Amino acid sequence: MDAVWNSVHRERAALIGDLRGLGPHDWDVESACRGWRIRDVVAHLVDTAATTPAAFLTGMVRAGFDFDRQNELGVERYRGKRPEELISLLVQVRGRTSGPPRFMAPLATRLVEEIVHGEDVRRPLGLHKKYPPEDIKTAIKYQVATSARFGGAREKLAGITLVAEDIAWTHGNGSLVSGPALEILMLVCGRSPRSDVVTGPGLVRF
């Protein structure tokens, strides 16, 4: 458990460093998370880092047990904040170890969020980051084993073989999709991978 939280805290700190280098107009660029600007992704990360099991359950009730609506309500809480305020809030929650109830969102979801939303911010702005292979593997393994109902990709991957070439990881049986682990993770999280680095006949399914 401590290893995952250490990784989460490291990713938060790295993103804070990148955010401090952004210009005023960068915050309103469309992120790689459809429908959210850069500032919205940061607001979401602040909200999820600050939440507690009780607050999450209360929020789910208000959202009618709709995960997407619950996320939007969380973003709305911080939507009016200036960039420097969002950075300050992220600094404040950087070391937290709270989150949704584990029966609804296992600890691995915290790492998935930090890596994928970190890329949601970085990619449209031309920023790059390398991640520890074990962190990427933990995130991918969670996503492929989790139902789409809870934000995973299990159903979508029926009949697909995924191969993350740089970490010697394989999953499934069927039409091949192969490429770097980070790009495979982004793909199974509903994002478009960087062009020409993910290949295989199974891509038509995505």
TrEMBL record:
The keyword Isomerase applies. Residues 9-93 form the Mycothiol-dependent maleylpyruvate isomerase metal-binding domain. Keywords: Isomerase, Pyruvate. Transmembrane segments: none annotated. It comes from the Bacteria. SUPFAM superfamilies: DinB/YfiT-like putative metalloenzymes (SSF109854). GO terms for molecular function: isomerase activity; metal ion binding. NCBIfam families: maleylpyruvate isomerase family mycothiol-dependent enzyme. This is Maleylpyruvate isomerase family mycothiol-dependent enzyme. It comes from Kocuria tytonis.
